[in-house]
Amino acid sequence: MPPEPRVAATAPPRTIPYSRQSIDEDDIAAVVEVLRGEWLTTGPRVGEFERAFASAVGAVEAVAVSSGTAALHAMMHALEIGPGDEVIVPTLTFAATANAVLYVGATPVFADVRPDTLLVDPRSVESRIGPRTRAVVAVDYAGQPCDYAELQTTADRYGLALLADACHSLGATWQGRAAGTLARLSAFSFHPVKPITTGEGGMVATDEPELAERMRVFRNHGITVDHRRREASGTWFYEMQDLGFNYRLNDLQCALGLSQLKRLPAMVARRRTLAEYYDRRFAEVDGLRPTTVDARAEHARHLYVVQTSDEATRATAYTALRARGVGVNVHYVPVHLHPYYRRRFGTGPGSCPVAERAYERILSLPLHPQMSDADAEFVADAVSDVVRGAARRAA
Ligand SMILES: *Cc1c(COP(=O)(O)O)cnc(C)c1O
């Protein structure tokens, strides 16, 4: 018989992850109910989730897809963006924002961010506009909506579509308007670390039914089913009008999404309470600067991002905090610095100096609705201690 695994003499410390899903008994019951029923993939829950989501954000339409990445891709397709076109995206984002532009054969052009909010800088956007520019993607970094008034003015002046990567900002508002209604098309993600989850999943919100229809065809191979022609010609008729993908979100996922959506206000409220606690604790720590919140924004608090005073402190803090069980992370490697983009487009350091400098100093602290008050206190104590220690050693 193999020996029993031995328990380590010193158990590794429990790690508080930077984010994780929150699943309750209602969520579980909602999925089980679908499993006992007739529809595993496209069934009644898909439309129910789309309608509930649209009404939650105040949009006319919402189209469910299989991921946030698929949502971004569908958005590009809906506007017929393609080869020869350019789309401006901030560099401080997840790679998928820019990758979606490549999926349709267009070229992403990287804009810099503001040093205080780390949101896309409208002046940098304007400086990137050229004759081939078709659209601008505003990324609501960390859950804070961008300056949509200024971005919309710029987009209108040059005849561009303003789109939102709202993967972080479900539950946020800007000047009283909800994320999902701030741009022509807004993409959301339901990955487990995001504001609500369906395992994997995504949604596009829009006020334009024609764009929603194009995306519904796109998520199903580009196939349309004209029910009248089906009746006239027998029951089998369908035709492919466009090149689409299998980007469907299934009934199991939509049932989970419906249940999670009901819990969104409570989950966002918990995130805000924890973030306010961090704000109070870090106000008194020299060498640690939380990201600025614009007075016009009601932040969804997807990420709690702080900036250290320099790169060395961030490196020390990252290692020391991880060793203490504080699951810190870095969001993000600026996309224009990724080897793929450097090789393919010749991008590199120097083109987005604010994002490049921020990247050396940012740290995302644990923040998710499952965290207890004691967890938040543990994180704040560890962060304060580690940052003060690094400052003492540097002095
Ligand atoms: C998570 C995320 C995506 C991609 O979403 P997936 O559901 O993981 O495909 C895109 N953009 C941003 C800003 C994200 O955080």
What would your notes on this structure say?
With 395 residues, the chain is α/β, with parallel strands linked by helices. Helix content is 41%, strand content 15%. It has 13 helices and 15 strands. It has helices at residues 25-35, 44-57, 68-78, 95-103, 122-128, 148-158, 209-218, 227-233, 251-282, 311-323, 339-345, 353-359, 373-394; strands at 61-65, 86-90, 107-111, 133-139, 161-165, 173-174, 177-178, 185-189, 202-206, 223-224, 239-240, 288-290, 297-298, 304-308, 362-365. The strands form 4 sheets. It has a 7-stranded mixed beta sheet with strand order 1-9-8-5-4-2-3, sandwiched between helices. Helix 6 links the parallel strand 4 (133-139) and strand 5. Helix 1 packs antiparallel against helix 9 (251-282). The longest helix has 32 residues, at 251-282. It is globular, with a radius of gyration of 22 Å. The model has no long low-confidence stretch (mean pLDDT 95). Bound molecules: pyridoxal-5'-phosphate. Pyridoxal-5'-phosphate binds next to helix 3 and helix 4.
